[in-house]
Please model this.
Amino acid sequence: MQPTGSKAEFPEALIRARKQLFWDRRQSPPAIESPGFILKVMEIGTWEMVEALEASFPNPLLVQALEMAPCGSLSPRSWNFWCLRLGIDVPYPSRFAVR
Model:
């Protein structure tokens, strides 16, 4: 996944999200442009982080993150919100579905 700008152009809200949303210090936080980071912001990011995410990445990349999402990465409520917000109809991933 590639952002709309260079790495130096990420909004401060996404840089803060990388520090605030990934609290397991045994692992390094994922890159801002990774699907894991995008999904975490979609699930528990603040509204400021969500706006920064949408400003930094085109909708097709956000859709791709949803399509690749493993079961449990987003709650059903968040999944529904993002499907409506992005104007797509992607079924919620089943724990039995192969991803």
Q: What stands out?
A: The chain has five helices and no strands.
